[in-house]
Amino acid sequence: MENKLANPAPLGLMGFGMTTVLLNIHNAGFFPIGSMILAMGIFYGGMAQIFAGLLEFKKGNTFGVTAFTSYGLFWITLVFLLVFPKIGWTAAPPPAFMGWYLFMWGLFTFFMWIGTFGKNRNLQFVFLSLFILFWLLAIGDWTDSKIIKTIAGWEGIICGFSAIYLAMAEVINEAHGKTVLPIGERK
């Protein structure tokens, strides 16, 4: 008896992509962080990616489980880093420490990007642009450069939309049984 499992990657990619776009609209200077971004960070960027990661585990996809659960937990930790100081549970981390936090996520993402070699080009772009985003944000915190933070915001919007595109391409292509939205499949 065949046990065909649904592809959980679009759920994780949408959780990542939409939350990344919204946070980086803030980073680009358009609006302050508020409950909308924080809620997306906990529930869609955080929990939905963790669920997707657990489903990737069921499918035996080490890359997917590592990526989705890690980035889901990134979003939850980021929200707590922003909220805990506001409610008096702990002091806010100094910008230099936030820079190291972002740098380490960039380092993790660099290695995950290497893990995309041999996979589709769109996925490679998502991880490459995310690696660049994390390190731009780290440099922005280390230097307190408004220009670098704004550039990071625009770059993050591109990164997030690339994940949204990939998620919807996977859903639409599967629904139609053919390539409707190309993702640069490896031959």
Approximate shape: globular
- State the major sheet: none
Could you name the ranges where pLDDT drops below 50 across 5 or more consecutive residues? Answer: none
First and last CA, distance: 30 Å
Share of helix, binned? over 70%
What is the number of helices? 6
* Strand content bin: under 5%
- Strand segment count: 0
Structural class: mainly alpha
Structure write-up:
It is a single chain. The chain is built from six helices and no strands. The chain has helices at 9-27, 35-59, 62-86, 95-115, 121-143, 146-176. With 187 residues, it is mostly helical. It is 77% helix and 0% strand. The model has no long low-confidence stretch (mean pLDDT 96). It has one domain. The radius of gyration is 17 Å and the shape is globular.
Could you outline the blueprint of secondary structure elements for this entry?
Blueprint: H1 9-27, H2 35-59, H3 62-86, H4 95-115, H5 121-143, H6 146-176
Short descriptors:
187 residues, mainly alpha, 77% helix
Brief characterization of the structure:
With 187 residues, this protein is mainly alpha-helical.
